[in-house]
Amino acid sequence: MSQNLIVVVKTMSVNQCCQSPVIFDPLLCHWPAELSQSYKNFYAYSSVAPKDGYGFHLLLLFVNTEMMKIYLDELIQSLDEKEIILIMDQVGWHKSKALVVPKNVDIWVLPPFSPELNPVERLGKMLKRNTLHNRLYDSLKQLEKAVVEYFDTFTPEALRQLCSCSYIMLQGEICIRT
Hints:
The structure is a single chain. By secondary structure, the protein is an alpha/beta fold. It has a single domain, classed as 2-Layer Sandwich (Nucleotidyltransferase, domain 5), CATH 3.30.420.10. It has helices at 65-78, 120-131, 140-152, 156-163, 166-169; strands at residues 5-19, 37-49, 54-60, 84-88, 105-109, 176-177. Strand 2 and strand 3 (54-60) form a beta hairpin. The radius of gyration is 19 Å and the shape is globular.
């Protein structure tokens, strides 16, 4: 097992509040009754190998089994087909029976309702704190650019420090096998 690369996966929703242009009507002396507010979003699929600080991130439009398959294919390609253990939470698209898992990937799932066991949650909190909190972007493209630039700031050492946790350093022994 020591030759396997242990990678922890997290899917994060990244959204931007968008309001339609509102024009004050001076003749009616009020704002329009219908203020259109909506959210535009994408999802940041992120993986970190806490032992060596390797990080892989992909922005996709949806969270579903098809997108998870695309993410796994890209992740495997970036790791040169190495044997890896993916540690994930139990959201539906992570453990869907329709998800075709490559032969060189072994998936382990964390216990239900245990985000504190997923060290990539810390990366998600930092991402939101540093790209979303108290910020408004003119377009979704600008937000995507900000997210990509933020991910690019992490060195392997920074990812190692942020995402290290004892159970992964001990070969993931408390994970539940699927």
